[in-house]
Amino acid sequence: MKRVRLGVVTASVLLAANPVAAGSAAAVEDDTGTVLPMAGFSSLMVDPVHDRLFLSGGGRADKILVTDLSGAEIGEIAGEPGATKLALSPDSSTLYALLPDQGAISAVDTTTLSEVARYDTGGKAGTADRPVPASLAFSAGRIWFTYTQGDGGGLGSFDPADPAAPATRTELGRGYAVQASPEAPGTLAVSLQVAGHPELDVVDVATGTPRITAHAPGVWSSRLAITPDGQGVATDGNGVLRLADLSRDTDYSSFPSGGSLNGFAFAPDGTMAVENWEGMGSSVHESVTTLSAQGTQTLRSYSFPDFQSTGITVQDIAWTPDGSRLLSVIDTMGTLRLHELTRPRAAQTSMAVTYDDLTLNTGTAVPETGRVNSSLRFPAGAVVHISRTDAAHPGGVVLPDAPLTADGGFAVRDTPPGAGTYTYQVRYPGDADHLPSQTTATIRVAKVLGVATDAGSYAYGATAKATAHLSVDFKGAKVSLYAQPAGAGKRLLKSGTVDSSGNLTASYKVTRDTTFTAVFAGAHDYYAATATRSAGVHASVHGSLSGYYTTASYGNTSYRVYHHTAKQKYTVTVAPAKPGACVRLLVQHYHSGSWKTSKDLSCVRLNATSGSAYSFSYTGPTGDRFRVRAESDPQGTDTANSPTWSGWSYFTIRT
Length: 655
Known about the structure:
Layout: E1 12-14, E2 28-30, E3 34-35, E4 43-47, E5 52-56, E6 63-68, E7 73-78, E8 86-88, E9 94-99, E10 104-109, E11 114-120, E12 132-139, E13 142-149, E14 152-158, E15 168-171, E16 174-179, E17 187-194, E18 197-204, E19 211-217, E20 224-226, E21 232-235, E22 240-242, E23 261-266, E24 272-278, E25 285-291, E26 298-303, H1 307-310, E27 312-319, E28 325-332, E29 335-342, E30 350-353, E31 358-361, E32 369-373, E33 383-390, E34 393-403, E35 409-411, E36 420-428, E37 437-446, E38 449-453, E39 457-459, E40 463-470, E41 478-485, E42 491-497, E43 503-509, E44 514-520, E45 529-538, E46 540-546, E47 550-554, E48 557-563, E49 567-575, E50 582-591, E51 594-605, E52 611-617, E53 625-632, E54 649-654
Parallel strand pairs: 31-37, 39-45, 48-54
Antiparallel strand pairs: 1-2, 3-29, 4-5, 5-6, 6-7, 8-9, 9-10, 10-11, 12-13, 13-14, 14-15, 16-17, 17-18, 18-19, 20-21, 21-22, 23-24, 24-25, 25-26, 27-28, 28-29, 30-32, 32-35, 33-34, 33-36, 36-37, 38-40, 40-43, 41-42, 41-44, 44-45, 46-49, 47-48, 49-52, 50-51, 50-53, 53-54
């Protein structure tokens, strides 16, 4: 793949957490990085003991650069012309550098940064068939290297304790990548080309004599990495293979196996980093992705700016020893830099909400739900922070935090206080295992739908008229009207298209307190609306006197007339039927020009037919006037009807 350098360097880009729904925010990383004083680059090696980086310059350099873990120069190892691949002794005391053009491997003291030995990889200098070393690794106390020699090649080694001893070589095929690990002692993974065909071999070198223990024809890899558990080998085209038999290791299911993989590295805890590219020519896009240990989950992905506009290409990646940062050597139009990705093991998050830019009916709770997306589940107690801004509160109103479910779901609990435009900001602050993210949603609130009745309360059995009004002019918009008497189910009264004024009217005979509901299914960016109107319905309370012998009038009022020896019987009936309920009886005596209460019975029980008969007698002087009436639900416990009084029944006592 030829990469043509074009454009200029962009200072920063967004972390690849593509906005969804209402614009999930993303973290920002610095793409410029630390400039490395190198004309060329070949390999990056991390020294975990001394917290240093060794960077070889390839054919364009004669030195190895030494920096701290942030890329600040510490020194250089001079006299290493054309150094390419690097390897460290297990104790990090010695750095080995491959010098292909010299047919040699140099040994450098990592404390003094000076070369202490140089090992000849064999063959006669200046001859066409001299072996050319291609890669190196340290295992079983020896330095191992692959080499090419004409159409062949193989695997060679030498004892670092005896620089004068000649290298041993075993012909296996044109040798390319070789990899070892302390976790797989005495074992090498070797990429070869045999008779023009690629193959991958696992070689036992514990005795010093190479012995192939597993063989995979057709598998080619320009780079190899032993997994931290020492059980597998990562390749750049075939995923992770088991060292035991080179079969596919399905535990690393997320490790890429396509041809777009450009580099990879393992953190000490097994977290993987892979560098991918896609596109052709000047339209190459490169990203670094971290995967959980065993590669079952993608944690986060960082996309470098498009190559077409920045010229950025990724040359190599490596982890810091503690796994807190992922280092990438990048080439920005010929300038080499060290780029840091912080918190590479924290899972990337993005936030999506259900609704944005909708219109909500006044008095309606926002229907907003959402999700913080991540490859890792969220811990117990995780919350998102929510605030709301509007014209009256430009600085924002802090709302209660919303708890996250384990899979990241949340709900916004709020009812906007009135008409207007509201913007909700939802922010996940992140935690030890998750990066932060945030989003916004804008909601307009207006009087979209209402419902009214022709009276605030009704007598028992009256006919109520309810009218739904839709203020939004949608041609053919439909509304439904429902009635729900207290204690009963909802009943559809009417459903249809509103008239030219936006109204739909229905009538309903009421016997209990009734809630009328209008429902609009929503349209365009108007959220479904519901409006309610409650109307009280008074119970029917009827009282009548019996046992009188005649009637008489005082002014315009008719009185029942009783003998002073007779009992006055007052009968009460209540509808709808309320057997066992209380009614209150109030008896008043007209005395000294006004009505005064003479008896107040707070609870007279209704019988099974919702009636009650109460008898009382009078022992005072004749000629006095009285009146009596009944009140339903004096204790306020009736949930079906509003309390009410009967009319007054008047009586007088004569001889």
